[in-house]
Amino acid sequence: MGNQEPGPQANRTLSEQDHFEVHDLAPEVFYEQVHSFEFWFQAVQGYLSGKVYGVDPNLSAPSLPDLDRDRLITVLCNYCVGETAALEGASGLIAIAPNRHTKIFLSTQVVDEGRHLEVFLHRLRLLDVADPEGEVERRASRSLLLFKRRLLELVNGKDWEAAIFAQNVILESLEFTVFQSHAREADPVTRDLLLGIVKDERRHIGFGENELGRRLQLAPHIRARLGQVKRELDHLVLDTLEETLLELGADPVEREKLGRAYLEAAARLGLET
Amino acid sequence: MADFLTAYSIQNWLESCPQGYLMGTVYGHRPEDEEPAPLLENEVLREEAIRTTVQLVVGERCALAASSGLINAAPDEASKRFLATQTLDEARHVEIFTQRLLDLGVPKKDLESTIQHFANPNLVKFAEVLLEKVDKKDFVAGVVGQNIVLEGMAFSVFEMLHAVSEPTNPKFARMLSGTIADERRHVGFGENRIGSLIKQYPERKADVEKLQKEMSYWMLATFADAFRNNPARAEFKRIEGELSRAGVHAEWQGVDLLTKDPEEMEQILADTVLKEFKTRLSRIGIEYQTPDRP
Fold first, then answer.
1. pLDDT of residue A32
2. The total number of structural domains that make up chain B
3. Which of A104, A114, A118 sits opposite B94 (nearest CB)?
4. Which residues are paired to B256 by β-bridges?
5. Is-contact B208 B144, C-beta < 8 A?
6. A56-60 contacts: CB < 8 A, separation 24 or more?
7. Closest Cα of chain A to B85: distance in Å?
8. Optimal mutation site among B81, B108, B113, B130, interface A, most CBs of chain A within 10 A
9. Looking at the partner chain, which of A37, A48, A133 has a beta carbon nearest the beta carbon of B14?
């Protein structure tokens, strides 16, 4: 099929696929390759094959002391709020996406976000939470709910650059930072599902940075508007980060380090920290 | 409600779809399959294949916009998650049918203009009626329009195309069989989820029935253009005759499609789809409305 669009990873060896990073691609190759169902499928197949609700079925959930269990429930509930925001944000963005490739990429992101929500709700059930959705409502962080509201306002306002920035750079970077940190200290079941999610988040951030990077090159005036969105959202994100890290028992040095890691994500786009 | 929705989880979707019947496929077909040479070498047939595939792209683009747009209108988390899988299914359909246009020789730079040129205006109207409901975040009407009417139509159209393609174009037949499996899941969700919502909001029935009638009219008008007014009917007749003489059959709904005139095929398709609508709508407590005939 000579006229076929570029195949995703079909020609890579397994070893090459293990080390494959979308961030390493040149922008034009990245754009052609990653915006397809085929690419998504090849990517997730590597780390979701054989998993049930994001977890190796051979792992068993440990029994946690009451205080640890309660903290974990609060953290997972807030992960659910973040993933619901991401699901609603990504699905709303499809309508305003500028082309077919972008719509298809966002469709893969929609199912990723839906999967994250599902695995977190399932983890809550494993912790004997009888009504996970009700528990999420009860324990939701106010800062995160405000962030979600603002994100959906940007999406509904059809502001493509600002919404992609809020969704695929700010929110995804926040989740990436927190999930990576949490995975290091988590019980085996939670760690396994977090590590799978982190791989998805890396793909979403790559898309956001690439999409905005190209637009910023073509229209540098967008930078000022994104800077304004960032200043508006930073305190909500940093408050959420602080609340979550406190629940996870992170010390002040670790909290400050992770706060910086989040701010560096915006800095990669040349937006002031 | 919660029990039936567990069958529509993303975990089940992953196991049955990407890790199930799509395993080993590339753009929905076996990697070694290609469009048959007699199709690519016959300009009339090639153009007709492009015209048909464009309608599939138009329909799937509408389904992608509708399913993603309905996520934010869904009243519960489980429905949102099912619609997330449907969104990606529809995006995959857009991708594979767009790829087929490229395989049929449409240059990449001409994709959009080709789609605009061949898109049936009645099908565009059909999509507009549905997307108006989605834009208003009307979940009940949106799901009936999307998962019962649009998907129900697509299901029968794909089955008919599959019956004709199976003996002549294994690549296209394989693409269609994967798509049919997706559509079956979507229609099932629509019936199950909307049944309970209609019981909860019986005042919505009249509006939903009006939507079904209107969308059905535009669907029938699309069928009329595709069969009655098809510019390639003489060439189709010649090839169908050749295939019949060679002992090739395309059985669907108890008839050999290769022996039928375009008007008869239109009638079979329209009757099949409308009968399905009637059955499915009655299951969810909606009274089927007979559409005007174009």
1. 61
2. 1
3. A104
4. B251
5. yes
6. A56/A192, A59/A188, A59/A189, A59/A192, A60/A189
7. 5
8. B81
9. A48
From the list A36, A107, A114, which residue is nearest B10 (CB)?
A114
Closest-CA residue in chain B for A80? B77
Looking at per-residue confidence, does B255 or A28 come out higher?
Answer: B255
Return the closest-CA partner of residue A161 out of A111, A112, A228, A110: A228
Residue of A11, A38, A121, A123 to mutate when probing chain B, most B C-beta within 10 A: A38
| Mean pLDDT rounded to a whole number for chain B | 93
Give residue A8's pLDDT.
42
Is some CB atom of chain B closer than 8 A to the CB atom of A100? yes
Q: Average pLDDT over chain A, rounded to whole?
A: 86
Backbone angles phi, psi at A39, to 5 degrees: -65, -45
Partners of residue B251 on adjacent β-strands: B256
**B92 lies within 8 A of chain A by CB:** yes
The answer to the question of residue B26 being in a domain is: yes
The Cα B276–Cα B62 span in angstroms is 21
> Angle CA(A45)–CA(A51)–CA(A54) in degrees, nearest 5?
95
Overall average pLDDT of the B180-209 stretch:
90
Q: Where are the domains of chain A?
A: 63-267
Put simply, whether B34 touches A (Cβ < 8 Å) is yes
Average pLDDT, integer, range B182-195: 88
| CATH number for the domain running over A63-267 | 1.20.1260.10
pLDDT in tens, B237-248: 898 888 888 899
State which of A66-80, B177-191, B237-251 shows the largest mean pLDDT. Answer: A66-80
Neighbouring residues of A35: CB distance < 8 A, sequence distance ≥ 6: A101, A102, A104, A105, A207
Contact with chain A for residue B18, Cβ under 8 A: yes
E strands, chain A, are: none
**3-class DSSP state for residue B251?**
strand
Using the predicted structure, report yes or no on whether residue A9 has a pLDDT greater than 50: no
Burial class (CB in 10 A: 0-12, 13-18, 19+), B212: buried
Q: Out of A1-5, A25-29, A194-198, pick the least confident.
A: A1-5
Q: What pLDDT score was predicted for residue B136?
A: 95
* ipTM, 2 dp: 0.89
Model pLDDT for residues B44-98, shown as the tens digit of each residue: 999 999 999 999 999 999 999 999 999 999 999 889 999 999 999 999 999 999 9
Residue B291 lies in a domain: no
User: B25: domain range?
Assistant: 2-283
Domain CATH for B36: 1.10.620.20
Alpha carbon B154 to its chain centroid, in Å, reads: 2
Q: Cβ–Cβ of B71/A91 closer than 8 Å? A: yes
